[in-house]
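In response to reviewer comment 3 from the previous cycle, which asked for concrete evidence that the modeling workflow produces usable outputs, we include below a single protein chain processed end to end. The sequence was submitted unchanged, and the resulting structure tokens are shown without manual editing.
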Amino acid sequence: MVKYAQESDLADLNSAELSERLAAVLRDAMPWLLTISEAEASVPERPGKWSGKQVMGHLTDSAVNNLARIVRMQIEAEPKLSGYEQMEWVGLQHYAEREWAQVLALWFALNEHVAWAIAHIDKASLGSVGVVEGDAVTLGFLIEDYVAHMQHHLRAMQGWMGPSVVGRHPKLVVQVSNTLDRRG
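The workflow returned the following structure tokens.
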């Protein structure tokens, strides 16, 4: 299992804070993501790499797989949790052909639910252990790593798509920010 986070002491973790970490990533990323045009989201970083649509599709697939892991680690004793064929998942779901707004809506809605589910985990369950691709991890670390994985991909996208194109759509960004503030 590729790891994106350093494991925190379990005593320092709580579900509400982990949920808020994910929600903050969503709130921070969405205004920028909404400024990306359909054309920009469709262009791969470079030949052989994913486009913005495909990266966000991958993050959606990650949400699906990690939500299942989060639930299973609360139900089963030391579940064996497989990885998944990331390239195939992205290809078979044809994210590159889907409208950018639809890709973002799916990613955002699914991750709002993941944050909701995380917020309701009993503190004792954060120490539950599962085996992901041969590595034993706690539920708390799995969640930390999930958020760090998302941040990794969003930072990478900003690196090749530009950190901000807010000037092109300032009213849209203000509207989305206001909507997210009302939710949060």
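The CA atoms of residues 26 and 143 lie 15 Å apart. We consider this sufficient to address the reviewer's concern, and the full set will be provided in the supplementary archive.
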